[in-house]
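User: Need the bound-state model for adenosine-5'-triphosphate:
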Amino acid sequence: MTDTAKLEIRNLRKSFGALVATNDVNISVRPGELHALIGPNGAGKTTLISQISGEMFPDSGQILLDGNDITRLPAHKRASVGLARSFQISQLYNDFTVEDNVAMAVQAQSNKRFNLLSDARKDAALRQPAKEALQRVGLGDAGHLMVSELAHGKKRQLELAIALSLNASVLLLDEPMAGLGAEESLLMRDILLDLKGQYAILLVEHDMDIVFSLADRVTVLVYGKPVFTGTPEEVRHNPIVRDAYLGEED
Ligand SMILES: Nc1ncnc2c1ncn2[C@@H]1O[C@H](COP(=O)(O)OP(=O)(O)OP(=O)(O)O)[C@@H](O)[C@H]1O
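Assistant: Bound-state model below.
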């Protein structure tokens, strides 16, 4: 399994003072796999994602992408080696159009390459991937709208479009369903279903219906430590998981 992992987390550890938020974590995400990370509030899911995306560095351990060690690579360089974290709504530019927001992300990632082109070609080279990414998340007709005009669900779709426009093969998705209404959730579920199989996806999500219906494998994190990794069916029936986490739901 180690040989074929797209993303591999080895013995990762991160403490905040006395609190061990990431406690010797080992997780692998295979090519095309949708791997969900679940756990109670405070289990360390966001802390782990932040280390994988490079916003925070671990105390020890390794993060490998396609077998290459990216543990200390700065966050802004990770997209160019194939790893994208879904943007957060707080990072969107409200006073620009939807398409501008995606085009700016494409440009920010590949500044040097585009600076060599003439303005017209540069514009086309930025607009085309932006349009394709928007199409992919169901925002093909919304490119001209100002971000400030978008409903919450559409902003979430835009976050995902920005991640897709970066041409990564590994996606880190941190609670894409958060704050969505029932209809918006169904739409997001369909979008994720469409992406499934084409990207290696590490998905943090509290919505268990989504996790159990979409994930190939699930890792359960409790107090910073993975207690079990398996298929949704195995996770559902595992006594350790039920005691530690799902117990109250059964
Ligand atoms: N910068 C920080 N400084 C100190 N403690 C932190 C910091 N970031 C997170 N923690 C602590 O680390 C633990 C893990 O937090 P984290 O946000 O990663 O959990 P989570 O699983 O994402 O939770 P949730 O599901 O509520 O989002 C918590 O106890 C949290 O209080």
